[in-house]
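Translate sequence into structure tokens.
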Amino acid sequence: MKRIFIWFLSFSMLLSGCSGLKNILSARDAEAAIREVLSLGSEFGGSILSKKGAFSKETLMSALLPEDFQKILNTLETLGLSKEIGKFSATLGTAAEQTVEKSVPIFLLGIKQMSLKDAVQIVKNDGTAATDYLRRTMGDTLRKSISPVMHQALENYKLETEWNNLIAPVKIFAGDKLNLSLSNLISGLVANMMFNKIAEKETAIRTKAAERKSALLQKVFGKIW
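Result follows.
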């Protein structure tokens, strides 16, 4: 009877151990899931931000002019430049939308190549840990990679010249304080808005079962580790 009890106890412990193994998150699964989340987020961001009207006049001009110069922009509008500013921002918005569409492969390649040593911890963290990691480790690289694409879009519409003409009166007020690179500023805006959309998708996958379309996402994000 004693032998039977010991055997039963050992067998129960073995089953318990096997069950525990099932709840261990492997680094390989975590890494693959994070890449999938970020890739889905990039595609989601591209689908939203490449649509016409995705970049409002207010969003674009706020990115172009520091807060201190917003009053100067208002002054320019009161001087009769509202039409020119409106036309410029509309065309710039189109260039930004086209850049977003072409930037998605850049994001996907960056996600594929980035190192994920902390994959398990990123999965276990709440919120937008994966997006934050991408922004922290690849943010500058992605912005620099987008910049030539944006520059080409600006060239197609001759926006660099139009921008320099538009801010000429602003430079009179600002002097040497104003040194603005149109392609760099809008590339930064595009990257930041893409990161925001990636974060939005990550949050949805972490919190909504319906967003976990693949078996891997269901396995990794469908339980609390």
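Note: Residues 25-221 form one domain.
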